[in-house]
Amino acid sequence: MELTGDPITDALVPIAQRFVGAVREHDIDLMDELLAEVILVTGGRCDPALALAVVCAALVPDGYSPATLLAWLTAHTEFDRLTSRGVSPQIARELADTERTSSS
Question: pTM higher than 0.90 for the full model?
């Protein structure tokens, strides 16, 4: 899939997407695996964290405040709170998203 015109950068886009998911889930092991994957994709020609930072920055839309871009943190915290009290994950996700959108 050609997105950027550069095959290496194109290969980094899905890795960056997975890295974002790993960050949101606090999955340090997956983050490490993805950094290793970047080394393989780039042939070790650059710092893997820097490569992911650049691609992730390119994925961030313009015109949004940091509070809006980081609103998922509130939803994630609310999701954890609800599931720890026995609410099913599906309902907790819906409630957390509703809470996030109503407070934005």
Answer: no
